[in-house]
Amino acid sequence: MKDSSSAKGKKNRINLFIALALLAAMPITASSEPTTTDREFIEMQTSLNAIMVAAVDWSAHEVWEASYAETLTGRNWLTVKQYATQLLASGTLVSLGGNGRADQGWVNDPAWQEWTAAMIEETKEALRAIEARDQDRLRESGDRLVESCEGCHAAFKPTVPTEGIMHVPHHDYGDPLARE
């Protein structure tokens, strides 16, 4: 009887060893949440030029102009924070590419990604200045933001407009909030 239970114990230890070895060989994931690499993205439905004019350019102008305002009220700080947040989100969009003729060539160029990263980093600095309500710091950040925009334009879009799209401050139809 001892021999039989001894053989069972040995067999159980071998099975346990094999199970542990197999378990150790299996990849361990910390979370079942998807990562950015294991899901598909919806293709951009517009060109980078359209995103730049409608979101990036517009938001960047507002951030920069706020930095040079005589004073900023509490409401002004909230408004410029919204524009800076839009600009930050737009940075991700322009890194992905759109459906314009030159878009894929631009986003596949490492210099495009470097300029985009510079814009994103400077926008994050602007948001820190906004949180601190530090207008001097916002002005410094805004000036560097303009430098990153102009550097990217010099490299990728030296003439404006392309695709016939151009930022026109306050649009041709006037101020939509003005009373007639």
Could you please describe the fold and organization of this structure?
- It is a single chain.
- By secondary structure, the protein is mainly α.
- It has a domain at 48-156: Four Helix Bundle (Hemerythrin (Met), subunit A), CATH 1.20.120.10.
- It has six helices and no strands.
- The protein has helices at 2-25, 48-67, 74-96, 103-107, 110-132, 135-156.
- The N and C termini lie far apart (104 Å).
- The model is unreliable at 170-180 (pLDDT under 50).
Keywords:
180 residues; mainly alpha; Four Helix Bundle (Hemerythrin (Met), subunit A); 6 helices; extended; disordered C terminus
Topology pattern, helix = H, strand = E: HHHHHH
Q: Tally of extended strands?
A: 0
Number of continuous helical runs: 6
Quickly give the structural class: mainly alpha
Mean pLDDT: 80
Which percent bin holds the helix content? 55-70%
Strand content is under 5%
Shape: extended
CATH class of the domain at 48-156: Mainly Alpha
CA gyration radius, whole angstroms: 27 Å
Describe the secondary structure blueprint for this structure.
Elements: H1 2-25, H2 48-67, H3 74-96, H4 103-107, H5 110-132, H6 135-156
Quick synopsis:
Helices cover 65% and strands 0% of the residues. The protein is built from six helices and no strands.
